[in-house]
């Protein structure tokens, strides 16, 4: 990266957002607040998603639930991995060398976000098969095939970013480590390799499948409504327009995919510009990276607002938690009332 990112060597901690440094506390306040805030949201949100999937059996009837849960576990690990830069910014002693920690953190987060990106592409393929081949869908998409597909996603993601230890920065870094910002450069050939092997195929698959899904749904809706109007006119009753049954669920998945690419697009653009030595800025590096990582929390919000079955599962989980919290209080109240009765009996 350019020399503009070289930190001050005068004893001050290395802060990407220099405006956030305070002499009294001696650490990068704004960076710590942003990263810890995202870490708490990501971990808590994805734990809720995982528990809701276990509490709502209806959610597991969709084959896409395999990929949604895979994304939830990957996003949860992203939140846990955010502990590394948080502890670094708070000046906790690191056993390993800073260069190794930086490379491992960049590799792990890259792999986890690659899993999410590949899972979104697989979800779109799954919905495309469900709509284009509904009669043979259950024979084509089976649980063991889905598990193999998820295993391939994890292995592929690990292999794609493995050259980052020798070829250069893989992205998704944030440059919170001084060595990351000053010494770990992006390589244009490795960037092209990542685009060809991950970004471009995933984006093409998502665009192709969802375009055809909505086109087919619109065509089916039109045919169903025409038939309904034809038969209702014969019976003398007015027919109501009926939407494609798969379109609503496809819209939920499409929103998740759209938000993913909207949040990641600024960083992908910055990553391409940085690797080609066109533009480099430490503030842009930090903000675009952590904006992209915030997507790990957005999936929880979209699901909770869009999926009625998920909302029922969330209510069931919250009801179970409230009931478990209420039991000790009820037991305590009953024991208190019993002790009062016994004390009253002794005074008589």
From TrEMBL:
InterPro entries: GPCR_opsins, GPCR_Rhodpsn, GPCR_Rhodpsn_7TM. The keyword Oxidoreductase does not apply. It comes from the Eukaryota. Keywords: G-protein coupled receptor, Membrane, Receptor, Transducer, Transmembrane, Transmembrane helix. Residues 45-303 form the G-protein coupled receptors family 1 profile domain. The chain crosses the membrane at residues 32-59, 71-92, 104-125, 146-168, 188-213, 252-273, 285-306. It is a multi-pass membrane protein. The keyword Transmembrane applies. SUPFAM superfamilies: Family A G protein-coupled receptor-like. CDD domains: 7tm_classA_rhodopsin-like (cd00637). It is found in: Membrane. Belongs to the G-protein coupled receptor 1 family. This is Probable G-protein coupled receptor 21. It comes from Apteryx mantelli.
């Amino acid at each position: 990266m350019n020399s503009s990112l070289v930190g001050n060597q005068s004893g001050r901690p290395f802060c990407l957002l220099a405006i956030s440094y305070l002499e009294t506390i001696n650490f990068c306040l704004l960076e710590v607040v942003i990263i810890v805030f995202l870490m708490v949201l990501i971990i808590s949100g994805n734990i809720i998603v995982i528990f809701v999937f276990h509490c709502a059996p209806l959610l597991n009837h969709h084959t896409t639930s395999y990929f949604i849960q895979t994304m939830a576990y990957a996003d949860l690990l992203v939140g846990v991995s955010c502990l590394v830069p948080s502890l670094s910014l708070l000046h906790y002693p690191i056993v390993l060398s800073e260069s190794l920690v930086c490379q491992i953190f960049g590799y792990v987060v890259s792999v986890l976000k690659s899993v999410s990106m590949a899972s979104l592409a697989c979800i779109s393929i799954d919905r495309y098969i469900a709509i284009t081949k509904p009669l043979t869908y259950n024979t084509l998409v089976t649980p063991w095939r889905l598990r193999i597909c998820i295993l391939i996603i994890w292995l592929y993601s690990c292999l794609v970013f493995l050259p980052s230890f020798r070829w250069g920065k893989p992205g998704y870094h944030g440059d919170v480590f001084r060595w990351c910002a000053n010494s770990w450069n992006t390589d244009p050939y490795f960037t092209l390799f990542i685009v060809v092997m991950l970004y471009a195929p995933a984006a093409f698959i998502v665009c192709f499948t969802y375009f055809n899904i909505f086109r087919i749904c619109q065509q089916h809706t039109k045919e169903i409504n025409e038939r309904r109007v034809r038969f209702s006119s014969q019976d003398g009753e007015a027919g109501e327009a009926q939407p494609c049954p798969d379109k609503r669920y496809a819209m939920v998945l499409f929103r998740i995919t759209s938000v993913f690419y909207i949040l990641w697009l600024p960083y992908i653009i910055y990553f391409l510009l940085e690797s080609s030595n066109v533009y480099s800025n430490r503030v842009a590096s930090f903000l675009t990276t952590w904006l992209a990582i915030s997507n790990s929390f957005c999936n929880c919000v979209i699901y909770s607002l869009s999926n009625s079955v998920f909302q029922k599962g969330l209510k069931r989980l919250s009801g179970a938690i409230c009931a478990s919290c209420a039991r000790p209080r009820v037991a305590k109240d009953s024991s208190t009332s019993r002790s009062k009765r016994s004390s009253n009996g002794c005074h008589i």
